[in-house]
Amino acid sequence: MNHDLDTRLLHIGSAPFDPVTGTAPVNLPSMRTSTVRFENLDRLQETVARRMKGERPITYGRSGMDTHRALEEVFNALEGGCYTCLAPSGLAAINILFMTVLQAGDHVLISDSVYAPVRNLNNALLSRLGISASYFSVGHDDVAALIQANTKMIYVESPGSLLFEMIDIPALAKIANARGLVLAADNTWGSGYIYKPLDLGAHISVIAGTKYVVGHSDVMLGAVVTNDEALARRIFQTQYAMGNSISADDVWLALRGVKTIAVRMPQHAKNTLEICQFFDSRKEVARVFHPAWHKDPGHALWQRDATGSNGMLSIELNCSPEAAKPFVNALTLFGIGFSWGGYESLVQWVEPGSLAPHTYWANNPHAVIRLHIGLESTVDLIEDLTQALGKIQNWDL
Ligand SMILES: *Cc1c(COP(=O)(O)O)cnc(C)c1O
After folding, report:
1. For residue 332, how many other CB atoms are within 10 A of its CB?
2. Are 309 and 194 in contact (CB under 8 A)?
3. What span, in angstroms and rounded, lies between the C-alpha atoms of 165 and 161?
4. How far is the CA of 44 from the centre of ligand 1 (A)?
5. How far apart are CA 34 and CA 61, in angstroms?
6. CB of 161 closer than 6 A to ligand 1?
7. Consecutive sets of 10 residues in the chain, 397 residues long: mean pLDDT of each?
8. CB within 10 Å: which end of the chain, N or C, has fewer?
């Protein structure tokens, strides 16, 4: 039976019945192990032979046990994929992707609104390995014209990391397919639940499970998902070579966290639209960046390509970044910190320097504040935001 995604997410990872007692707990336990024991040598040889054929039987703790396989199924269900490679963090998943697709001499085109550590990966590692990267602005640049003879991949994050600009993945997929390139997308924003790059034409989707999949700010985890068997084989080979391993306890927490994504995500989205409305009514706020907000320039693309929204929004305040600091410090319900996707509200004072490479940014001297709207009461959140706005002294109105 092809059940709805919400139903499947609840039933993946149910513990099987014990053949002796005929009973089972609801959830698969966290299967911690380093060594996997084999019943006899025949079973061991059978397993090794299956692995040689490209299957992924249980062989050793590093490549995961049943708990891990259940979470792989969760990511496949979320992303509409057939193959999931788990990673110890979202950034590790991005690394596996880059190390799988690219080799010395290759070039990758990256959208300029990506998550900043991707630029660091490029500077710190890719360049040393003889892999070159250049950045493009979706909506401004003619991407096809930027493809070089050695370009192997187009890598995007949609919506973008700080200002949530929507990217037209189907249009990029046409370009990538015409030139035989891999199109990969960071889908942490959608986490498969509200946005599906593979369905839109991307070949690989990477997700920081750390965010909405886990949903409780207590685990680092990532995944690389694809439908392409040949790419999947290369992804698993790369993962195996790199020696990453993911704790069964972390996997178990992710399995537990994702059970409530169907109620968390719409509630984050609903709260966030209320906060957008609040900011829209305030003269101190020059602009609200959130694709589900009807005034966002990406709204039409969001309506076409996404099935929901989440708790991420940014605002441009009519003051300098320096003048906005008292606002951030005065918030009591918003934790000052990076990351997002947990149940709680967060605030990030965006470094002006990190906006500079984003073509989407108007390059004005105003402050940008990124917020994650949690599951708190919006009455309380709005009261907190209102008192904090009152702490800004030097408005540029
Ligand atoms: C957080 C994040 C990552 C990295 O995830 P970690 O688990 O923190 O390594 C990657 N991409 C995006 C868009 C993110 O927000």
Report:
1. 10
2. yes
3. 8
4. 37
5. 4
6. yes
7. 91 96 96 96 95 90 96 98 98 98 98 94 94 92 95 97 96 97 98 98 98 98 97 95 96 98 98 98 96 97 98 97 97 96 97 88 91 98 98 88
8. N
Residue type, 141: D
Ligand 1 neighbour 208 (Cβ under 6 A):
yes
Angle at 156 between CA 153 and CA 157, to 5 degrees: 155
What are the distances in angstroms from CA 355 to CA 5, 115, 121, 157? 36, 11, 18, 15
98/189 Cα distance (integer angstroms): 19
Backbone angles phi, psi at 236, to 5 degrees: -65, -35
Mutation choice for ligand 1 from 96, 114, 188, 189, CB with most ligand atoms inside 8 A: 188
C-beta of residue 96 within 8 angstroms of C-beta of residue 239: yes
Contact residues for 190 (Cβ-Cβ < 8 A; gap 6+): 196, 197, 306, 310
Residue whose CA lies nearest to ligand 1 atom number 1: 339
The answer for residues whose C-beta is within 8 angstroms of residue 268's C-beta and 6 or more apart is 212, 309, 310, 311, 373, 374, 375
- The CA distance from 119 to 198, in Å, is 24
User: Quick one: which atom of ligand 1 is closest to the CA of 339?
Assistant: 1
- For residues 99 and 242, the answer to whether their CB atoms sit within 8 Å is yes
Distance CA 326, CA 336 (A): 12
* Residue-range domains of the chain with CATH: 5-30+64-258 (3.40.640.10), 261-389 (3.90.1150.10)
Is ligand 1 within 6 A of the CB of residue 220?
Answer: yes
Which residues are known catalytic residues?
A: 62, 115, 186, 211
Place of tokens 């068997």: 229
